[in-house]
Amino acid sequence: MSNEHQILAALCPNPFRDVGLEQTRRAQQLLQAHGVETAVCPIYDEDASGVLPEGLRYETLQSVAARARLLVCFGGDGTILHAARAAVGNAAPIIGVNMGTKGFLAELDPSELHRLTDVLEGRYTVSSRAMLDVSLTRGGKTVYADCALNDAVVRGLERCIRLTVRSDGQTVSCYTGDGVVIATATGSTAYSLSAGGPIVEPEANNILLTPICAHILGAQSYVLQPERVVTVRLEALAGRPAFLSVDGGESIMLSSGDVITARISQNRTHLVSLGLKSFYEIAYEKLSRQC
Q1: Residue 46, Cβ density class (10 Å: 0-12 exposed, 13-18 middle, ≥19 buried)
Q2: Residue 221 · residue 198 · CB < 8 Å
Q3: Are 56 and 41 in contact (CB under 8 A)?
Q4: Model confidence pLDDT, tens digit, residues 75-87
Q5: Is 151 noted as a catalytic residue in this protein?
Q6: Residue 1 burial by CB count (10 A; 0-12/13-18/19+): exposed, middle or buried?
Q7: CA pair distance 41, 83, nearest whole angstrom
Q8: Which of 2, 21, 150, 171 is most open to solvent, judged by the fewest CB atoms within 10 Å of its CB?
Q9: What is the b/e burial string over 152-172, where b = at least 16 CB atoms within 10 angstroms of the residue's CB?
Q10: Strand partners, 37
Q11: 22 and 52 Cβ atoms separated by less than 8 Å
Q12: Could you write out the DSSP letters of every residue in the chain?
């Protein structure tokens, strides 16, 4: 059998978190000892040429995602978000090893790496998470499209911007402020929460709209039904810079009249759950920690 068909587990380290890929190597040895072929697919590899250790063969996640049956991420939530977007459309479940700070999405700590054998033996469940299809329309043409697991954020830089938020064409709010967060339930514990939004159980399919520092008392966070189509229109920016960022990725500069559209995607992210802690335990633990 060719190597192309032997890859079953994609190991996705953030080399700035998993220094020297120590945990990645441990996982690789464990998986290979159980007869599982692996591919090492660094996240942020375009910025890590001087950080990745020699002696390992690296591949891009995009090149192996279609034939991977498991994705193991080493880093923080950002690493898992990056991997989920890179592997969008692939049904392989993702399990995270937390080497960041909050780590809402990660199931394991490095000391629990041996629990990967539970996954190999099928002792796990899958938490299916909604994603958002996000597009940017300018002058009637779509100029950018992406898929988000956490959120799409429209934000001004240093100065306030004016925007109109609609749901199925009906105005939700029109205000001046720092911006708006369009989030999934999974993203409810991320930027949306810090902007004053509610915590939503992560397997819910709702869309959350949370204003960022709005200069109006009537601008509140909304929890919408999954069938809604959300639009955010940038009103006259008058030279004020504004950007769109999907899951904390590349910032796309916006112009007056731009319209960002978000809706629940047909794509979903599947996260491995070993039943170690409930969502409520995780939320209490993570949100009680200061740093």
Answers
A1: exposed
A2: yes
A3: no
A4: 999 999 999 999 9
A5: no
A6: exposed
A7: 9
A8: 2
A9: bbbbbeeebbbbebbbeeeeb
A10: 7
A11: no
A12: --HHHHEEEEEEE-TTTSGGGHHHHHHHHHHHHTT-EEEE--TTGGG-TTTSPTTS-B--HHHHGGG-SEEEEEESHHHHHHHHHHTTT----EEEEE-SSS-SS--B-GGGGGGHHHHHTT--EEEEEEEEEEEEEETTEEEEEEEESSEEEEEESSS-EEEEEEETTEEEEEEEESEEEEE-SGGGGTHHHHTTPPP--TT---EEEEEES-SSTT---EEE-TT--EEEEE---TT--EEEEETT-PEEE--TT-EEEEEEEEEEEEEEE-SSS-HHHHHHHHHH---
Report the distance separating Cα 248 and Cα 237, nearest Å: 22
Q: Say which of 45, 77, 133, 258 is annotated catalytic.
A: 77
Residue 141 tokens read as: 């043409």
**Residue 93 tokens, joined:** 């479940």
Q: How many residues comprise the chain?
A: 291
Claim: this prediction has a pTM higher than 0.90: yes
Structure tokens, 168 = 């199925």
